[in-house]
Amino acid sequence: MRAVSYLGVISLLLIACDAKYSDISGSPEYSDRVGQICITLKPFYAYGYTYDLNHKKTDAISLYPQKMASRAFHTFSLEIPEGSDITIVAVRECWNCPFDRISYEVTASNHKEFSMHPIYASEKVMDKDNVQCYSAAPDQRSAPNKSSNLTGAHNAPSS
After folding, report:
1. pTM of the model as a whole
2. Cβ–Cβ under 8 Å, residues 17 and 108
3. Between 21 and which of 59, 92, 125, 141 could a Cys-Cys bridge form, CB atoms 3.0 to 4.6 Å apart?
4. Alpha helix (H) ranges present in 55-155?
5. What is the pLDDT of residues 137-157, one digit of tens each?
6. How far is residue 30's CA from residue 104's CA, in Å, rounded to a whole number?
7. If DSSP codes are grouped into helix, strand and coil, which group holds residue 23?
8. What does the pLDDT look like over 68-89, one tens digit per residue?
């Protein structure tokens, strides 16, 4: 029985190491998030990461609302100040991840140096405590879009 438990833990770790994503941008639950402009309510931290530790080139960027310890797969870290604009361009679901299954691909208009790499933020990062999202253009965002219940967190069922 103990061997089965160890095998299960090892299997979960191996599955989590090679995350597989599906684009769910067009699903009814998430389609209205695509195109939203979100303003950071606190500093965010961008971490570049690599898929290949032998080359250390940045393959993608992840956003977090807190500083993290540097990891071997990190290629850089940068603070993004409060009040920065990020735009949701896609929504994806990890179908073999045990946690943080939903993530958003975003762009950061204040940080052109990020434009060479995809930027991802988890659903937790994009919640109402961290960002305020609008459907209006940046020059029309004096107030959130009241017709939408999507002001940061999405009320999708968690898995």
Report:
1. 0.71
2. no
3. 92
4. none
5. 555 544 433 333 233 333 333
6. 10
7. strand
8. 877 888 888 899 999 999 999 9
Alpha-carbon span 35 to 143, nearest angstrom: 16
Whether 47 contacts 40, CB under 8 Å: no
b/e 39-73 (16+ beta carbons within 10 angstroms → b): bbeeebebbbbbeeeeeeebeebbbbbeeeeeeee
Please answer whether residues 80 and 119 qualify as being in contact, where contact means their C-beta atoms are separated by less than 8 angstroms: no
Rounded-to-integer distance, Cα 156 and Cα 29, Å: 7
d(CA 112, CA 102): 25
- Report d(CA 49, CA 27) in Å as an integer: 28
By residue count, the chain amounts to: 159
Give SS3 for 10.
Answer: helix
Could you tell me how far CA 15 lies from the centroid of its own chain? 20
**CA R_g for the chain:** 17
Using alpha carbons only, what angle is made at residue 32 by residues 144 and 85, rounded to the nearest 5 degrees? 50
For residue 9, what are the contacts with CB-CB under 8 A and spacing of at least 6?
none
Distance CA 54, CA 50 (A): 9
